[in-house]
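Before the break, one more example. Copy the sequence into your notebook; we will annotate it together after we see the structure.
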Amino acid sequence: MVMGQYLVFLPGWLRQFITFFWVGILSAIVHYSVLIAMVEFGGYSPVAGALSGYVCGGVVSYGLNRHFTYESDRPHREATWRFVVVAGVGFILTWGFMQLFSAHWLWPYLPAQIITTGIVLFWSFLAHKLWTFRPPASPVA
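Here is what the structure looks like once it is written out:
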């Protein structure tokens, strides 16, 4: 059986959050792969690697969340720019927390990124649910 068949019995918001979490895992694999490759093999700073990885993971996140998490029919011309705004705030949050954790507090970059990812996860879920992929308002007759 598919995991989605088990999720049908959960409240809608919890089902969405669990799906968002799994989409996040896939996006994080992309994000962390870029981060590690840039730092370990490219000689880039952890902050630059984190931000580049964030963008790459964001591309994966948009498509999967639009289709699976929120089952959105909001047109791409509306959803895409909203996604970019939410991702832009997440990008700034990622920069700020990675700067704080790895550059100022000198934490190892992977634990710093894990904590940063957790913080940005909650921001992104709520913003996408309430704004990016929310169904468009019906016109009043």
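Residues 86 and 127 are 7 Å apart (CA to CA). DSSP finds five helices and no strands in the chain. Try to locate both features in your own notes.
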